C-alpha cells in the first residue's frame, strides 16, 4: 500500500526557537519510543484512501459529524454518486462542524480516535491543530492526554511542538493534564523531557505546578510516583527548575511540601528536603501553617509520617516554635487533631514549653480533645506542671 510522508509542519513555526523546540521534542521521542515506533508517526495512508476505505472511514466520518447510521449511509451514497462533493463535505465539516463545547472534529478524534483518524482529520483542516476549543481552551494535545490516548499524543507532539506551551483553563499545560489523568510513566517522562520548564509553571485555576498536583491527586489513585521519581527524570542542566517548582506557592500559599504532608508522605521526603532550602520549611500558607503544622494535623501514625516529621525538625528545629495565624505551635495543632503519642514525643524532644501560659494551653488542648494516657504521661514527663495550671 502506498504511503507518503506527512506534509512538513514548518508553517506552524514562527521563529527559530520554535523550530529548535521541535528538534528537541523529536530527539526525545526518537530516544524513548525507538526509531521504529517513532517512524510510524511520520507516514500515513493518503486521506482520500482512508475516507474511501470500508475499514477506516466510519470512524473518521463520525468525528466529522456523521453520528447516526442514516447520516453515514447518506454519505456513502454521496461518495458513490459524486466523490468530488463528498470530499468537499469532508473539508467543510472538518473546519466548521464545531460542537456545543467549541470542539473541532480534530479535538474529538484526538480523544478517542486512532493515529490514522487524527492524521486524516488534520489533513482536511490543518489549522485545527492550533485551535483551542471555545470553553476549556483545550488544544487537541490536551484532549488526547486527558483521554490517555497515548499514541495520538506522540503524533501530535511531532505535528505541533508549540502545543507543549499552551495553557487551558482548568488543568494548565499538557504536563499538568498528564499528572491529573495519571498517564503512563513513559508519557509523563516524555512530556517532562520535551519541556522541563513546565515543572515550575503554575496552572491558571489554582496556581499549582505539577509538583503540587502529584500529591494532591495521585495518592488516592494509588500511583507509585513520588518526589524521587520526578527528581530522577529532571535533566541535570534543569535542576534550577526543580528548585523553583519546590518553592512555588499556589493560590493558597502552599508549597509542594504542604501538599505532601497533607497526604501520606512518601519515604523519599528526605529527597524533597534535600532539594528544598530551609526557606521552604519556614514558608506559611494562607492559615499560617508551615509544612510541620500540616504534618501534625494527621490523626494516625505511620512510619512514613514519623520519618517526615523527624526529617523536618532535624533539618529545621526552628519550625517547632513557629506559630500559625491563631498563635498555635505545631505541638498545639498535634494535640488539637489527636495526633498519636509518637508524634507528640518527637515534637517535645525538640521543643519544651518554657512559660506558664504555654503549658496551660497544652493541658487545655489535651483535656479538650481527650488525649491518650500515653500523651498525658509525655506532657508530665517533659515539664512537671503545678496544679493551678491544670484546667478545672
UniProtKB/TrEMBL annotation:
<keyword id="KW-0040">ANK repeat</keyword>
<feature type="repeat" description="ANK">
    <location>
        <begin position="326"/>
        <end position="349"/>
    </location>
</feature>
<dbReference type="InterPro" id="IPR002110">
    <property type="entry name" value="Ankyrin_rpt"/>
</dbReference>
<dbReference type="InterPro" id="IPR036770">
    <property type="entry name" value="Ankyrin_rpt-contain_sf"/>
</dbReference>
<protein>
    <submittedName>
        <fullName>Uncharacterized protein</fullName>
    </submittedName>
</protein>
Amino acid at each position: 500500500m502506498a504511503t507518503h510522508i506527512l506534509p512538513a509542519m514548518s508553517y506552524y513555526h514562527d521563529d527559530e526557537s520554535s523550530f529548535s523546540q521541535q528538534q528537541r521534542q523529536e530527539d526525545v521521542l526518537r530516544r524513548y519510543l525507538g526509531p521504529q515506533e517513532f517512524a510510524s508517526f511520520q507516514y500515513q495512508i493518503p486521506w482520500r484512501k482512508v475516507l474511501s476505505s470500508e475499514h477506516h472511514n466510519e470512524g473518521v466520518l463520525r468525528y466529522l459529524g456523521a453520528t447516526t447510521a442514516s447520516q453515514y449511509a447518506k454519505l456513502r451514497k454521496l461518495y458513490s454518486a459524486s466523490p468530488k462533493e463528498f470530499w468537499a463535505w469532508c473539508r467543510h465539516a472538518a473546519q466548521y462542524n464545531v460542537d456545543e463545547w467549541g470542539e473541532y472534529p480534530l479535538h474529538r478524534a484526538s480523544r478517542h480516535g486512532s493515529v490514522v483518524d487524527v492524521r486524516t482529520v488534520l489533513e482536511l483542516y490543518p489549522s485545527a491543530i492550533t485551535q483551542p476549543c471555545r470553553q476549556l481552551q483545550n488544544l487537541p494535545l490536551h484532549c488526547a492526554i486527558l483521554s490517555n490516548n497515548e499514541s495520538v499524543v506522540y503524533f501530535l507532539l511531532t505535528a505541533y511542538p508549540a502545543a507543549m506551551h499552551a495553557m487551558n483553563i482548568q488543568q494548565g499545560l499538557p504536563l499538568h493534564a498528564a499528572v491529573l489523568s495519571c498517564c503512563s510513566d513513559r508519557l509523563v517522562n516524555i512530556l517532562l523531557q520535551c519541556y522541563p520548564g513546565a515543572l515550575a509553571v503554575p496552572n491558571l485555576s489554582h496556581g499549582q505546578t505539577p509538583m503540587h498536583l502529584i500529591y494532591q491527586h495521585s495518592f488516592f489513585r494509588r500511583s507509585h510516583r513520588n518526589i524521587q521519581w520526578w527528581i530522577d527524570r529532571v535533566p541535570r542542566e534543569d535542576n534550577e527548575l526543580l528548585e523553583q517548582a519546590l518553592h512555588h506557592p499556589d493560590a493558597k500559599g502552599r508549597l509542594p511540601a504542604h501538599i505532601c504532608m497533607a497526604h501520606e508522605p512518601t519515604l523519599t521526603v528526605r529527597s524533597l528536603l534535600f532539594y528544598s532550602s530551609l526557606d521552604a520549611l519556614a514558608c506559611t500558607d494562607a492559615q499560617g501553617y508551615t509544612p510541620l503544622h500540616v504534618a501534625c494535623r494527621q490523626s494516625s501514625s505511620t512510619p512514613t509520617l514519623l520519618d517526615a516529621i523527624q526529617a523536618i525538625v532535624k533539618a529545621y528545629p526552628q519550625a517547632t516554635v513557629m506559630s500559625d495565624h491563631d498563635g498555635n505551635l505545631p505541638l498545639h495543632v498535634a494535640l488539637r487533631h489527636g495526633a498519636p503519642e509518637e508524634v507528640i514525643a518527637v515534637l517535645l524532644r525538640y521543643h519544651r514549653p518554657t512559660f506558664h501560659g504555654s503549658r496551660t494551653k497544652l493541658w487545655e488542648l489535651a483535656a479538650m480533645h481527650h488525649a491518650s494516657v500515653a500523651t498525658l504521661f509525655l506532657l508530665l514527663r517533659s515539664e512537671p506542671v503545678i496544679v493551678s495550671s491544670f484546667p478545672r
